[in-house]
From TrEMBL:
One of its GO terms (cellular component) is plasma membrane. HAMAP family: MltG. It comes from Candidatus Rickettsiella viridis. The gene is mltG. This is Endolytic murein transglycosylase. It comes from the Bacteria. The record marks 217 as: Important for catalytic activity. Keywords: Cell inner membrane, Cell membrane, Cell wall biogenesis/degradation, Lyase, Membrane, Transmembrane, Transmembrane helix.
């Protein structure tokens, strides 16, 4: 009996030594960083197993005791629950922290910014050049793009909200567009419900069109309600909007960098000189501030504005004031001889016939 007790005591003794050794080594494993100086970049692909993760980390020299790692994963119930994706583990990350991070799915988030005032084509170009996404929209029409998003086959211009979007590795380009479209719908509907009374817009889409004009006409925040006020009052009075940015959009690739008199006379769907009312679609993606300014225009009586040449505009309530502003900020600056010596076409007797014709045409264009 004493021999049996002695044997049992020896077994217990050696077992306790083994367990103590295991506990000490396992604890050391848990608190020892995988790397003290190196950032670990790892992509856990869909369908990958725990064995694949351990093999990869061991092959890169980050794990010396794979059995301890399996025990850790099993004890946390993480064997089949690690989230797939792209991970960065900072220097000093322990095995315990790595498993927790992969259980919670704290993956790398990449970002994509849609810039205020972009056209849909500019958005697609930027999206096609974006790494880390699955590209599904290359070489297809705008209508097909919308179809892939599950949206009606309409013109996509202006239907995406300019903002910064965060996504993980493997997201589709259609995912980003869908998020942007839904955010635009949400923001536009929220602002539409808070709109001022007596606006000339029957639908939120019409307001979106006007907001895109505001976006392209000025980059100065305080001018946006002033621009939107001019647009709203012209619509109410049935006056052509005469928005240059709309002309440029309608010209498309035929725009040479400077609007000519022929451009103003070319009757496109977006020519707001030859056609009254709003263009048929937005001409860009308006910012939230442009949407808000459109739905809350200023309370002045201004019907005209002209660029000063420094990014700002001079606003006028009548044609006489506007013509004076054109003379000061456009003709005097571009044609100083004409600006100093004339007050109108009738006093151009000393200029050549060709120069007089040019000045009169410019005066006619800028008087709107």
């Amino acid at each position: 009996m004493s021999k049996k007790l002695t044997l049992i005591a020896l077994i217990v003794f050696f077992l306790s030594i083994f367990l103590t050794y295991f506990a000490v080594q396992y604890h050391r494993f848990l608190i020892t960083p995988l790397s003290k100086t190196e950032v670990i970049h790892y992509v856990l692909k869909p369908g990958s197993s725990m064995h694949r993760l351990v093999d990869d980390l061991q092959a890169q020299g980050f794990i010396q005791h794979p059995r301890f790692f399996y025990f850790l994963a099993y004890s946390k119930g993480a064997t089949n629950k690690l989230k797939t994706g792209e991970y960065l583990f900072d220097p000093g990350t322990t095995p315990d922290q790595l498993v927790d991070q992969m259980l919670s799915g704290r993956v790398i988030l990449h970002r994509f910014t849609i810039v205020e005032g972009w056209t849909f084509q500019q958005l697609l170009t930027a999206l096609q050049a974006l790494p880390y996404v699955k590209h599904t929209l290359s070489q297809i029409s705008s209508e097909q793009v919308l179809a892939n998003l599950g949206l009606p086959p309409e013109n996509p211009e202006g239907l995406f909200f300019p903002a910064t979007y965060y996504f993980s590795l493997g997201a589709k380009d259609t995912d980003l567009l869908k998020w942007s479209y839904l955010l635009l719908e949400k923001k536009l509907n929220q602002e539409w419900l808070k709109r001022a009374s007596d606006l000339p817009y029957k639908t939120s889409y019409e307001a979106l069109i006007a907001a895109s004009l505001v976006e392209k006409e000025t980059a100065i925040p305080k001018e946006r309600p002033m621009i939107s006020g001019v647009i709203a009052r012209r619509l109410e009075k049935g006056i052509p909007l005469q928005i240059d940015s709309s002309i440029i959009y309608g010209l498309g690739r035929h725009y040479t960098g400077k609007i000519t008199l022929d451009d103003l006379r070319k009757d496109t769907l977006y020519n707001t000189y030859t056609r009254k009312g709003l263009p048929p679609t937005p001409i860009a993606m308006p910012s939230l501030s442009s949407i808000q300014a459109t739905l809350h225009p200023d309370g002045t009586q201004n019907l005209y504005f002209v660029a000063k040449g420094d990014g700002s505009h001079q606003f006028s309530s009548n044609l006489a004031e506007h013509n004076r502003a054109v003379q000061i900020y456009q003709l005097d600056r571009r044609y100083p001889i004409i600006g100093k010596k004339t007050k109108g076409c009738q006093s151009l007797w000393y200029l050549s016939k060709q120069m007089k014709s040019l000045f009169c045409q410019l005066n006619e264009v800028n008087s709107h």
